[in-house]
Structure formats: structure tokens, C-alpha cells
Amino acid sequence: MINTVFFDFYNTLVKFWPPLDQIQEAACSEFGLGVSEEGIRRGYAIADVYFNSENARKPLALRSDEERLEFFSVYEQMILENAGLSVSLDLATKIWNMASSIPKDFTPFDDTLGALADLRSEGFKIGLISNLRRDMANLTEKLGLASLIDICVTSADVGVEKPNPGIFKAALDSAKVSANEAIHVGDQHKSDVLGAKNVGMHAILLDREGYSGDVDDCPIVQSLSDIRPLLLDGKSF
Fold first, then answer.
1. What's the average model confidence in pLDDT over 86-105?
2. Which domain holds residue 189?
């Protein structure tokens, strides 16, 4: 029986503010390019698959400044291409530099606090499994999440990133639960779903924008509020 629910952090529990689609739209306009926020959201959904695949191959934290800029230039080009804009790699670099220079911070999604509180009220332990290399204790406190989270394991803690089995096993050890007693919720199929399933955990894919395509190996939800009834029903696991 599932008694512990782990979550990815960025793009699952929290997002950037100002929203990245607005930042990208503003950066593009500085270069005379018009793009819709909806197009940018679609671009991010597709480019983020590349981001997570590349980060799993070689974590960005371990790359040189030159390698990171090269990566983010390709990433930006991919975002814009899938938003309907074809730009050179040089222009993509300039747009990325402008967009990344705009101050931004994390903020919870509208459904985050309520969903976590509801799960805790049902007796579930709540955990984080994140590739984010930040002081998560301070960050979750600042965002009003600390009192709702029991376990937090990051790539900085264990030295490997999702989908590496090591980070999921470390989270299970920290929670003192077996794999079949835990479920992981995240927005990336490879990093979150396959990473969790490869160590025997259950998994749910969070697809807020409806871009999951032909994923058929796990339940898919569009809101965190859908998780509680899914777990209480139990038929999907």
C-alpha cells in the first residue's frame, strides 16, 4: 500500500515568477520577433525533454561556462523553433542571455499548497526528489512549503541526478519505506516516471499543458489536486 508521495520540485510544485513564457515573449520583442505565450509554453514542453536528457547525460553543474552557454543556446533555439520561430544559433544565444538576465524567483503553483495539505490529512508522508542544487530548507520555508514536506533529497545531497537510481534509493532510505510503498510525481517522463519505476516505485506524470503525447506506462494528471482521489481509489496502482 502506498503511504509516501514524493514530488519533483521545479515545474511540479513551483514555477518561475515572472512566468518564463512572458519573459521569453519580452526578450523576443527586443529583437523584433513576435511570439505567443502559448507558443512559448509549447516550446518549453518540448525543449525540456531535451534539457532533462542532456542533464542526465552530463549534469549542467559539472559543465564549463562555455559548455553551459552552448547548451542553453541550443535549448533556446529549440524553444523558439517549437513556438514557431526559426532563428540562428547566434540569435538564440542573444535572446537567451537577455531572458536569463531578467530577475525571477520561484512561486508555488496555485494547486500546490492545497494538494499537499490534502495528502497529509489522509496520512501520506510527503517528500521531494529534486535535481535543483539549492538550499532547499530555506527555499521551502520561504515558499511556505516546509511544514508540508517530511523528506527532501536533492542531487546536491547524493551526488547524482534523476533519473539515476541512486537519488530515488536515497529518498526511499530517508523515508524508511520500500519502493512499492512510494509514488513519485513529476513533469518529466524520463527523469521522473522512468527514474522512479526503474527502482520499483510507482509514478504519476504531471502534464499541466497536455503535451504528454503517447505516454501509456503511468497515470497522467493535469493538476496536483487530481492525485489525492487517484491514490484513495487505488485502482491505478
1. 97
2. 4-14+106-233
